[in-house]
Amino acid sequence: MSSIIRPSILNNNQSQLSRWHGYASTSLLELATVNLILDAAQHAISARNAFHLVLAGGTTPRHVYELLRTQKTDWHFWHIYYGDERCLPVNDTERNSQMAAQSWLNYINIPADQVHIIPAEQGAESAAQAYAITLNKIAMFDLVLLGLGEDGHTASLFPGHDWGTATDASPTLPVNNAPKPPPQRVSLSARRLSQTLQLVFLVTGSSKQQAVSNWKNGKNIPAAAIKPACGVDIFLEDSLQ
Ligand code: 6PG
Q1: pTM over 0.90
Q2: 90-148: per-residue pLDDT in tens?
Q3: Ligand 1 within 6 A of 59 CB?
Q4: What is the pLDDT at residue 8?
Q5: 207 lines ligand 1 (CB under 6 A)
Q6: Which among 129, 184, 195, 218 is least buried, having the fewest CB atoms inside 10 angstroms?
Q7: What is the CATH number of the domain that holds 210?
Q8: What distance in angstroms lies between residue 24's CA and the mean position of ligand 1's atoms?
Q9: Is 29 helix (H, G, I), strand (E, B) or coil?
Q10: Structure confidence by residue, pLDDT tens digits, 213-240
Q11: First to last CA, the chain
Q12: Centroid of ligand 1 to alpha carbon of 49 (angstroms)
C-alpha cells in the first residue's frame, strides 16, 4: 500500500484519485483487506497509540470481519465507527452494527466505549445530530471501509439525495426515503468520510458490474464523490474489471 500522507480533503471540483486493485477471487480480496486493516492499525498504533476505523455496512465485509476475530493485535487501541446505520431497533439483525457485532466485535476484547454505534433507533434526525457530536472528538480517521451499491451508492449516500460534499457539510446526514430498505438511515457525509488517512472500497458480486462501469466511465455516482486527498483504493474481483 502507498505510504500514508497527512491529507486535507480535496475540494468538490477536483476529481477523485482512485486506484483499482483486481483479485482473482473473493477470498483473495478478503485476505488482502484483512492484511491492509492490520497494517493500517499497526502504523496508527505505533504513531498515535490509537486506530480509528470506520466500518462498512451491508453484506460484503462480513467475512472480512469474521477473519479479524482471530487476528493478533491489541484491541485496546482500536476505535470503531460506522459509515452509516439503518434506523431499526437496537438489536435488529439488519443493523450494520449488529452485523459487525455478530461477525466480529462480540468475539474480541475491544473496550465497549470504543465501539461508537450510531443511535439510529432514535430516528434519522436525532441520531445524525448525536453522532455528529461523537465525531467531533476525531478529526481524522485512520481507515475508512466502504461498500458499493448497485446504483453507485456508498454508505447511505444515494443518487438523487444530498451527499454532503460541501466543505461546510455536516459530518452526518439524516436519510429519508432511501431506495435501499430501510428507508430511514443515518450516513456520514461525503465530506466526513473523506477525512481519513486511507480509504478502501470493497466491491464483490456481478450485481456491481454496472456501478463499476459507471464509476470508471466518470459518471457522477455517490462513490465517486468520496475524495480524501490520499485517494481511494478500490478492491474488486477481476471479473468486474
Ligand atoms: C448499507 C450499506 C450500503 C452497502 C452497499 C453494498 O447499509 O446497506 O451501508 O452502503 O455497503 O449497499 O451492500 P452489500 O455489501 O450488501 O452488497
Answers
A1: yes
A2: 999 999 999 999 999 999 999 999 999 999 999 999 999 999 999 999 999 999 999 99
A3: yes
A4: 47
A5: no
A6: 218
A7: 3.40.50.1360
A8: 22
A9: helix
A10: 999 999 999 999 999 999 999 999 999 9
A11: 20
A12: 30
Q: Which atom of ligand 1 is nearest to the CA of 205?
A: 17
Return the exposure string of 170-198: e unless at least 16 CB atoms fall within 10 Å of the residue's CB, then b: bbbbbbeebeeeeebbbbbbbbbbbbbbb
Q: How far apart are CA 44 and CA 49, in angstroms?
A: 7
- Domain extent at residue 39: 2-240
Span 74-106, pLDDT tens digits: 999 999 999 999 999 999 999 999 999 999 999
**Domains: count for the chain:** 1
- φ/ψ of 159, rounded to 5, equals -55, 140
Cα 126 from Cα 186, distance rounded (Å): 10
**Is the distance from the beta carbon of residue 152 to the nearest atom of ligand 1 less than 6 Å?**
no
Q: Where are the beta strands (DSSP E) in 71-167?
A: 78-82, 84-86, 143-146
